[in-house]
Design goal:
The protein is mainly α. The chain has one domain. It is elongated and about 55 Å long. The protein has 3 helices and no strands. Helices cover 59% and strands 0% of the residues. The longest helix has 25 residues. It binds zinc ion. Zinc ion binds next to helix 3.
Length: 64
């Protein structure tokens, strides 16, 4: 096995674990109401999965 093969194998492994992490996140059920302000989260946003906050509160949370 040469260096290139080894590198692409590592790359592939990393890619797979990223995909798994995304799928795991997506399978989590979204909340119906925002965790912070209790406003209902739009269905379109909840469909993403794993959503716990409305867009506004999520932005505040990420901006911390
Ligand atoms: Zn909110």
């Amino acid at each position: 096995m040469d260096e290139f093969d080894r590198a692409s194998q590592v790359e592939e492994k990393h890619r797979q674990s990223c995909i798994q992490a995304v799928l795991k996140h997506a399978r989590q059920k979204s909340r119906e109401e925002c965790l912070d302000c209790d406003q209902s989260i739009p269905q379109k946003r909840r469909d993403v999965g794993g959503i716990v906050r409305c867009i506004k509160c999520q932005e505040i949370e990420e901006g911390k």
